[in-house]
Design brief:
about 70 residues
Length: about 70
């Protein structure tokens, strides 16, 4: 099962891709005010690096943290 994790509750944004519980790709970068725009590109890059598409994702994990309402 392919799972995408998204973590934007800290200054460094992070996305990970897991396949059957094993991490297969990870990307992190300094979050900024344009995160809502840049995260889409980062997810596309992460998926392309593993020859995957959004349609392949079967699960999504989002971290709940002390970040702002607009953090995700």
């Amino acid at each position: 099962m392919l799972v995408l994790t998204i973590r934007t509750d800290k200054p460094e944004a992070e996305i990970d891709l897991y396949d059957d519980g094993k991490q297969i790709a990870q990307k992190s970068w300094q979050a900024h005010r344009q995160l809502a725009e840049t995260i889409h590109h980062a997810i596309d890059e992460l998926l392309q690096s593993q020859q995957k598409t959004l349609a392949d994702i079967e699960g999504l994990v989002c971290f709940k943290g002390p970040g702002s309402f607009t953090g995700l």
